[in-house]
Amino acid sequence: MVTLGLSTLLLTACGNLGSSSGTTTNTNEESASSGYQTTGQTNDSEYTGVIINGRYRTNKSRGVGVSQNSENLLNLKSFESGLTDISKEYFSTKDYVFQEGQTLSKSTVEDWLARKSSKNPDGLNPEDNGKNGENERNPMYVQQIEEQDYMKEDSKGNLSLAGITVGIGMNRKDYYQKEEYGATYVTNISKEEMEKQGKIAAAKVVARLRAKVGNDVPIVVAMYQQAEIDSLVGGSFYAYTEVKAGSSEITNWTDTDISSYVFPATSTKSVPNDNDEAAFESFKNKIQNFFPNLAGVTAQAKYKGKNLQGLKVTITTQFYSETEITSFTQYVAKAAKTYLPSGIPVDIQVKGSDGTVQSFLAKTAKDSSYYTHVFTSY
Amino acid sequence: MVTLGLSTLLLTACGNLGSSSGTTTNTNEESASSGYQTTGQTNDSEYTGVIINGRYRTNKSRGVGVSQNSENLLNLKSFESGLTDISKEYFSTKDYVFQEGQTLSKSTVEDWLARKSSKNPDGLNPEDNGKNGENERNPMYVQQIEEQDYMKEDSKGNLSLAGITVGIGMNRKDYYQKEEYGATYVTNISKEEMEKQGKIAAAKVVARLRAKVGNDVPIVVAMYQQAEIDSLVGGSFYAYTEVKAGSSEITNWTDTDISSYVFPATSTKSVPNDNDEAAFESFKNKIQNFFPNLAGVTAQAKYKGKNLQGLKVTITTQFYSETEITSFTQYVAKAAKTYLPSGIPVDIQVKGSDGTVQSFLAKTAKDSSYYTHVFTSY
């Protein structure tokens, strides 16, 4: 799925990049002899990340998410973005530094995501009952787990763990093969069953994490429903909770009302608000006939209840020249401003027929006009 | 080379988009009964483009550029960007509206670009002398021609032609096959010969264009040297001139000193300024070791003499998570600000190992910090 797209490259010495404001080269709690730096912050609403000795501190379970979501990587993308967003409600980007999870190792997460068995007592998924009928087998309920660490600098300038967020991705559909390389079957899981199994898994994960990290830090747990493998949007977080420092019990859950949808809506998959759909259709019609050849216009939409939270639009068309790309981008900016809902963040990617991004437009919730950029070449 | 990447799409009625400031729905000189609109302008430094009846007015020779540059599309991209830049010296983006060339049709341009023969007296390339040895045959000197029209609104609100720019792309290397699907051979053309043949071709093009458009508008001619087919940057414009309204003679040429280069420099291909190369190497080294897996870092650089005019950087690495992309992007912004030359426009594309753009950073010549955007998914 992921291959290393690099030709041979010369490795040369790597100096220290000056660290960002406030965090000059300090020693780190976990490796007191080495300094840490941060990635720097381009935007108040993003966390700075931890760098040790000039290298990014990667997740201890790096790569598990990619393999667990290989059938639809959108589930990984939306899972991680959403998990970071929930974390921001507890750990402000101003006071906390983001570190990829360092507690749960790759083998730990892999064991937890596997079935329970005599060899794997920690498996969060049920034992194999020997059956392979869609409705008779025990499905895999838990699909992915990811830890995020939130760090604070202490009075001595050391960076120490100050909070953990853990996301748990749950299946509504468990895809499986009856034989290797065979046809794909699916076991459906009801919403109620998913939520019930999610609570059971979350309780175990919190107790185990608490045992590993001690009593000093809060643990935020966020439950995610995986999207189907052919979905054009990822899944969404349906509940979350904070387990305060000192506790290892989940007492209550906060339900979210967030879901992702695809525009244009279809007869079988509608969107929560008809006005948004009408606005998108107006925009699409405006764009589609700009060139003699038709443009494809689709979007991912994020909703909280019936309220649109953001749009990510993709436009694909065939360009015959750079000047066409520039003109089209200007036209899209005008049409987007006229037709698309205001007050929400909107990204628009303009792709050529070979799928490469030719230009890009974006606005934040506050902006009224679009930032535009055409990818040109010297 | 270019295929239509669209699935079946519903065509629906297309209304009129409100036109941009100053140009309310006017009638057009060439089709007096139909209104024209413009694409709108996102940026003072770009032209607005012409829309007729809701559709972009495409080039009359649309597609010729793509086929003439199919071996290296960078030659088309840099040709068209550069041609627009030269046009801006004569036709301000404030006063003129851009229109894709409407004078030279596809068959005209194709005839001009072919060899001269009894059947094709207008061919700008020399007759076939029947020989196919690299140094004996007559090479193809002229590779591409493109017309751009610059329009002004008259007192009646009609849009009329106010200037033409024509670009002529010349070969230093003419690639050819001795037999269909056979090996590729190359005839080298000296710089002097290219320039000489370019002047001959330009004189003919101007005279023919003048005959077609009449005496009222200036014609700007710009000469471009095509890059080699395996080049990672396009070619560059080496000379240009303006033929004033009423004249059809080229009296003198303005030489440019603009060229494109690739970073990192190699032993066989150096760059004009060692300081820029050192700055780029520092940046590259800083970036390359951020992850355990190496990142590839290359750039296109535009020079005027020894002065760097702009950089387009491409970074390719393997990401395992969205959080890695966000952290890396912030790190790149900091490193770019620290190491890359200031006072020039810089674009940076961050790509995953599958080649898709994951994030993007850009600054204009005036900016000190970078605009950053991570392409996320719902």
Write up what this structure looks like.
The structure is a homodimer of 378-residue chains. With 378 residues, chain A is α+β, with helices and mostly antiparallel strands. The first copy, chain A, has 2 domains: 200 residues, sex pheromone staph- cam373 precursor domain (sex pheromone staph- cam373 precursor fold), CATH 3.10.570.10; 114 residues, GMP Synthetase, Chain A, domain 3 (2-Layer Sandwich). The first copy, chain A, is built from 6 helices and 18 strands. In chain A, strands 5-6-7-10-11-12 form a 6-stranded mixed sheet, with helices on both faces. Chain A has a 6-stranded mixed sheet with strand order 13-14-15-16-17-18, covered by helices on one side. A 4-stranded antiparallel sheet of chain A has the order 1-2-3-4, with no helix packed on it. In chain A, a hairpin with a 7-residue loop joins strand 1 and strand 2. In chain A, helix 5 packs antiparallel against helix 6. The longest helix of chain A is centred in the middle third of the chain and has 23 residues. Chain A is globular. The two termini of chain A are 32 Å apart. The N terminus of chain A is likely disordered. Chains A, B: This is Lipoprotein, pheromone. Chains A, B: Pfam families: CamS.
